[in-house]
Amino acid sequence: MTGRRAALGWLAALPLLAAGCATPGAPPAPLPVSFEASRWAGRFAVTMTEPGAEPRVERASGRFVIESRSGATLLELFSPLGQTLATASLQGGRAELLTSEGRRYEAASAEDLTEQVFGWRMPVGDLPRWLRGRLANPSETSEGRPAAGTERGWAIRLDDWRPAGPARLNLDWPAAPNGRLEINLKLIVDDAS
């Protein structure tokens, strides 16, 4: 894979919400005060659209694992069949991406790294916070839980709340369409611990 196809393949492993993959859950339970997940595993789906006279649309999906402990974040992406696509790690002001082909990319931040590899900035380091249901200035559900917000140019929607946090995370970039490249990333959390 090269260029955007490699980027799409890498993102495909991100925890995303694939249309029709979610099943209705039980009514939301109150969040435990003492519980905070540090590991999430699930499915992702990404759609990249280049608007134009003949819009170009690329889609990918797969599985992901995100771990966030002691200021470090690890993101592993897998194909739908379980092959490792890429591993990204953020720690101590450094970001690194290792692809299944053995290519290694390094940068000062996750945003710089994803811009270098994909051509656009993805706040990978913010995913654990968002998966915990923490958004800056969010709109809230009738139960008082965060529902949606905008951060770092991304429109974020949290759905299907469970004790560990939202089970679905929907991200759109840019938050306000600008007639250029548009990204939709959906994550479905199957397990949070």
UniProtKB/TrEMBL annotation:
Q: Where in the cell is it found?
A: Cell outer membrane
Q: Which CDD domains match?
A: LolB
Q: Which GO terms describe its biological process?
A: protein transport
Q: Which UniProt keywords apply?
A: Cell outer membrane, Chaperone, Lipoprotein, Membrane, Palmitate, Protein transport, Signal, Transport
State the coiled-coil residue ranges. none
Q: How does it sit in the membrane?
A: Lipid-anchor
Q: Where is the signal peptide?
A: 1-18
InterPro entries in UniProt: LolA/LolB/LppX, OM_lipoprot_LolB
Q: What is its main location?
A: membrane
Recorded hits in Pfam families, A to Z, give: LolB
Q: Which GO terms describe its cellular component?
A: cell outer membrane
The entry assigns this protein to a family as follows: Belongs to the LolB family.
Subunit notes for this chain?
A: Monomer.
The name this protein carries in UniProt is Outer-membrane lipoprotein LolB
From which organism does this entry originate? Zeimonas arvi
